[in-house]
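Per reviewer request, we include the raw input and output of the structure prediction for the construct analysed in the revised manuscript.
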Amino acid sequence: MSSPRRKLPSMTALPVFEAAARSLSFTKAANELCVTQAAVSRQIASLESSLGVKLFERSHRKITLTPAGQQLQNATTIALDIIENSSRKIQSSYYRKTAVTIAADASMAYRWLLPNFEKFHRQHPDIPVNISTCEHEDDCLKPDVDIALLYGNGHWPGFHAKRIINEVVFPVCHPDYLKHHPIASLADLVEHELLDLVGERWDWIGWQQWLLAMDIPIKKPLKTTVFNSFPLLTEAALQGSGIGLGWDKLVDDLLADGKLVRPFTAALATDRGYYILRHANERMSERATVFYDWIEDMLS
């Protein structure tokens, strides 16, 4: 047996009443709802007629709520708040289900993805994107992640991985550092303040490995300031704190703007790099495919 039809006041009039009761002004309610004051007055009058009571006491300069109006305001405010909160939850749930989820380590997220993301947004404003940084690689490979951007050798079981950035590493510093601390040759690097990256990933290139690969002897301990985050190391280089190792693509914007310079053209290339990953046995959504193709085009 179906439930009897609810006996409710006009659903059009209730939001109008709530706005007028909250502001105690038909004019303010009209401005808030983008209607005329006359329209607000008609809706209130219709509501009062259907309920058989006065909701407002009207005087020449102001309106006040009657006891019945106060009672209805309390109920209407609670009801509209519940509807508003439920609507937001529904919209948020829909957004999460339709958004493309991108996961990347901090270096890739801060030094390439974020500086370039506005380009994607301008081209595809209707595609919602969730971007998350992962302290641990496993977090980037969770089932709800559509696309991951990770550094490594290309071997991630259960994922299709395509290299998008070759690892090419070279010294970088602020122009003022180079001005005040001239470097005549690569061998002189061992005498300078070096900004070193340790701990973010065990297989990232550090200064000792880079110098040895360049056949530069290290006869005494290097003067290093150690960072566990490439974005922090980059910021230190921008402040003129020393010479860091920059990664191709990750510092391209800073070099192009002249905020960092390469004191030498020497660079170390390895067989590692950054990869774009997707689940091997799952078909990507149309929106995720658009984002995947955009990254490939940007880094091709």
